[in-house]
Input
Amino acid sequence: MRHQTVWILDFGSQYTQLIARRIRELDVYCEIRPCTDSAPESFPDELVGVILSGGPASVLGEDAPAFDAGWLESGRPLLGICYGMQLLTHLGGGTVGRGTSREYGPADVELCDNAGPLFADFDPAGGNPVWMSHGDHVDHPPEGFRVTARSRGIVAGIASEDDRVFGLQFHPEVVHSKNGAALIRRFVVDVCGATGDWTPGLFIEEQVERIREQVGDKNVICGLSGGVDSSVVAALLHEAIGDQLYCIFVDNGLCREGETESIREEFKEYNLTIVDAQDRFLDRLAGVTDPETKRKIIGEVFIRVFEDEANRIENAPFLAQGTLYPDVIESVSVRGPSATIKSHHNVGGLPEDMKFELVEPLRELFKDEVRAVGEALGLSEGRVWRQPFPGPGLAVRCLGEVTRERLATLSRADAIVREEIDKAGLTRAIWQSFAVLLPVRSVGVMGDERTYEEAAVVRAVHSSDGMTADVVHLPYELLGKMSSRIINEVKGINRVAYDISSKPPGTIEWE
Ligand code: XMP
Output
């Protein structure tokens, strides 16, 4: 079955993925495509609308990205946002005025007479807060277009006479635009006629069929880490091919407390091998304190162990991976700096030259959609809503040498942090919360005795993608409870501190 589809041409705006998210929230499938792609010779039947995103360039400048005007010939409704509106204006024979500086921030939109279908949820009396970001502006819309809205005298919206082509100077996809999501709904549902045929249940049905087709009677290997992505991949493949799926969980000794048991329990119906490789990892880590060396060792040993195990499985040319949509979008905005920052994060991954054909059933999904699919597949709430956990595990939170004893101390302290965050109902609201163990000893007193033990740090951050992060303002009572529980219950720690650094300049993990 083919889903109705909206294409979003990406001109490099930092908000392009947000447009896609807003559309997917309407159960409508959409794809982000680079603005520099050539337009197709014929447009697919399932295409219901096209959106041109914002972007940092000026349509009048030399840095304007190359654009194939064939994209405007689909005959489907079109919406240009910010740069997209200026491009529609420029190519349509209207005039765009060059701004002297870029203006970001909140603004109010006033509707003109006949504001058209997109503004149906806006207040005609004014007071419509939106998020504005503009350098250039539209002076005169193209022939056949009217101005539908203004903000501080500047054209904020245009529409064609037949209400099929629209432009907006502001960003409806950003939450600060009060009725922005409603405006996008008006475009996607009312104008494009999308019915909302992209639901987790249908996605699963479709993927099950696709996986069966791709795999045939061969076997598939899946590296199960216990994280959301690999768990959902495994559940989806299990649904599709049952015992042709071979899951491998490498217990590297660096997992959180209870993790191995919880995986054994949750995936007990699966063909699952739990490899006890604790000694292989921990022996190689003995005496190592340099963060990069630790990461390298863990990455190397993982590949060895995984290969050894995978080689035992016969008739298995396929490897399942939890690649998500943000990893595959070839857009102007998501390549670039983010790609480099992430490169040191692929510890726990497999080399590209492993001779497997990939099965990547989550390639079209955003993280929140992966969770919805996981829920629909019956994975536990704790599994589906868990916080991200780094490939090198507790090693990057155990500063100094990673010994069995220090790992036991850290994992107990970390379990207490998780328990308290859970009890406070904060697990879902927080990107990551955990404990770090420092190789620093300080003096304390317990009962009548003087202690001289290591210090733990509690870290809790809000983030939407791990690239930047803000410290969570945890209540003092909660921090106090964690601190007294850790000091009382965990041998080896006599002091607890809270990390109040944001990212940047701090990173989320300590190593
Ligand atoms: P930092 O510490 O650089 O981390 O602020 C950003 C996000 O990435 C996670 N992280 C990793 N994830 N393998 C992973 O799969 C890794 O080697 C790795 N290192 C960091 C980190 O937990 C945070 O969410």
